[in-house]
């Protein structure tokens, strides 16, 4: 399963009401580090299919979700489990680091 594009309108349904843990990536088209981690997140979404969902929120198009989460810099990553944030991190990281962060959090 590829990553899921989430908007302000679909944030609660896709993220907070998900029956599996959700990794949320707050990003923007102009953000270099966001583009660096994009392929790794796509790979992780495929590898963890059925176990986690990877959601991407474009902060330029969806400022309300980012504001509600207190996002001040991107990329900003959050893991939601049962509708609650269980972990978060900021900045780019290699796939292995993202994978171990996910494993520790879910």
From TrEMBL:
**Keywords assigned:** Disulfide bond, Electron transport, Redox-active center, Transport
SUPFAM superfamilies in the cross-refs: Thioredoxin-like
What is stated as this protein's family in its record?
Belongs to the thioredoxin family.
Could you tell me what this protein is called?
Thioredoxin
* Sequence ranges assigned to domain Thioredoxin in this UniProt record: 1-106
Q: Which organism is it from?
A: Arenibacterium halophilum
What the entry lists under InterPro entries is as follows: Thioredoxin (IPR005746), Thioredoxin-like_sf (IPR036249), Thioredoxin_CS (IPR017937), Thioredoxin_domain (IPR013766)
Q: Is the Transmembrane helix keyword given for this protein? A: no
Which domain of life does the protein's organism represent? Bacteria
